[in-house]
Amino acid sequence: MIRSNRRRFALRSVLTLLAGAMPLLAAAQAFPSRTVTIVVPFPAGAGPDLTARILAEKLAPRLGQAVVVENKPGAGALLGAAAVAKAAPDGHTVLLTPNTMVISPHVLSPGAAGGVDVHKDLVPVIAPATTPLVLVANPQLGVKNLKELSDAARKTPGIAYGSPGNGSPMHFAGEMLKKSGQLDLLHVPYRGVAPSITATLGGEVKLLFTGLGGAIQHIKAGKLVPLALTEKARSKLMPDIPTATEQGVAGVEVNAWYGMFAPAGTPVPAIARMNQEVNAVLQLADVQAKLNAAGVEVLGGTPQVLADFMKNDNQRYGGLAKELNIKAD
Known about the structure:
The protein is α/β, with parallel strands linked by helices. It is 45% helix and 19% strand. A six-stranded mixed β-sheet has the order 2-1-3-10-4-11, with helices on both faces. The protein is globular.
């Protein structure tokens, strides 16, 4: 009798588990069953937006559904992150963002994130690309490397450098250069990459930290002078630009990766399918050419690669924000 009761209890438990799992299994098997939306938490035309649109074009035929890009800028990428976190966890809404999203919680005031916890409310799908950060100068400044910049800063303290905003990876790079190179520089934040580049081209500021993608065409045209990459190694996109470390200024290493995330609770098969298709698209020669032309280097890999990026940046920038006293608007 006891064994019979145990069997009935076990059977009911299995049936209960299966009933609970059925909606998730059905969602995973049906993915994608409708339009897939890639939310980009930055304005149209920015590096993440360009990357998302290049991927969307190739993903649509592979997924058999339309893939659209929706821009939701604001709060250092956290407004877009919050929107995706609240979306149905079925794989049809994903976020494509730079690592600004991981940095922002450390520099924004409490409550500015819209209640999203990017480490709990989102799950990694893939890190499709990285973009090198570069320090460029308006030719009017008359410097071509960090040694010449150091000399100029000693003669004229308080040279202004621009960035796409307070608390951005570029802001961190500027403050790290100030500390490591013992340079007297003044930070001038702008609201986005495009305004900061326009200001530098016009001479409003003479220096700018930015992603290589936003500056590459102006560097090639001679309108901006590249002084250093804030990377461990040179970029294959513009191998003639030396790193800060190569020029004797150690500790100025800041990079920008792009990550794709889904709402927490998204079925693993749906995440696996999206990861598989993005990896396949990244292998296409024309996609690589377009991304490289936009100053973006192809990456890819498993969701764990992106998870590791998140963990490392969360720890690193949390400490740097306190050390350098960096706060966002």
